[in-house]
């Protein structure tokens, strides 16, 4: 596998990146699979920071055609409510033809079209996992600089996609180039700064490859030729909804504050806290005679394991997604089961850290077996 080298800051384009931390041979795919461990692809997950901008980013990067060669479904009530809220946010504005970049399962489109059935909605997605719907058009491609729709759409939307791009400024410029002046551009992004400050695992990973704070996003929008019309927060820590429109001129002289010292301190505090928490959990599970499980067939569990969580006595992963059941968590030898298996076990022990979904998951587990001992990382 030929990795993509990011030898300069993604924002300033200067070669001033400083290595902060490395997790060696980390699994590049985040979900559960039915292949053998020998087929897993691993790569060093190296965290760098720019001395000029203070932007934390990964280097090297995984080729997109490898990283996104599998279909992915987001499940859970929070995501359903996210799509419902974002669709309501979009409904405040009037448009006729919409291009959604990275539509995945089509959940946002379905939610929006329940109340707006006549909208012309097209999804641009390299690996769509969408049930057939005659009202939704699908284009199987990655959104890149070669995409040119000749301003066919009066609106472009994307949800939790910008943070996956390898150059967010180029991404936004490509969006701008496919819109006429005063046409709409809506998107939802994770509140990465809140995630980072609250020690969520996926503030950076091979998919979320750059630490995009709200200030950085605002800066990139101004620089790429968009005016912010409105922002709306979804949940206390989940997402930001942006409503923007294309303006006549880009501001190439806009200013971004250098947060090098702040971000560097936060970063080292982040990993120090994780290492201490994992050490305490290891001490707990090594002395407990209960049957032990780890929640989440996803990056959260991989992150804990590759930072040192002892899984020798963990029976399996439990996960709500039925498509993961009886499959192996990539990069590990643990297989996933339904949380319903806990109903047959006396006093099980479950390790959980899936913020911002932790409380939702804990409630569902205790509904299955109130005697379950829950160990949260923090």
Explain what the structure shows.
This protein has 378 residues and is of the alpha/beta class. It has two domains: 77-246, 3-Layer(aba) Sandwich (Rossmann fold), CATH 3.40.50; 281-376, Rossmann fold. The chain has helices spanning 64-67, 77-90, 107-113, 168-177, 192-197, 214-224, 260-287, 299-306, 358-368; strands at residues 17-27, 32-33, 42-50, 56-58, 97-101, 120-124, 136-139, 155-159, 184-190, 226-234, 239-246, 292-295, 314-318, 328-329, 336-337, 349-352, 373-376. Helix 2 (77-90) crosses helix 3 (107-113) and helix 4 crosses helix 6 (214-224). The longest helix is centred in the C-terminal third of the chain and has 28 residues, at 260-287.
What's the structural blueprint in terms of helices and strands?
Elements: E1 17-27, E2 32-33, E3 42-50, E4 56-58, H1 64-67, H2 77-90, E5 97-101, H3 107-113, E6 120-124, E7 136-139, E8 155-159, H4 168-177, E9 184-190, H5 192-197, H6 214-224, E10 226-234, E11 239-246, H7 260-287, E12 292-295, H8 299-306, E13 314-318, E14 328-329, E15 336-337, E16 349-352, H9 358-368, E17 373-376
Parallel strand pairs: 5-6, 5-8, 6-7, 8-9, 12-13, 12-16, 13-15, 16-17
Antiparallel strand pairs: 1-3, 2-14, 3-4, 9-11, 10-11
Helix pairs in contact: 2-3, 4-6
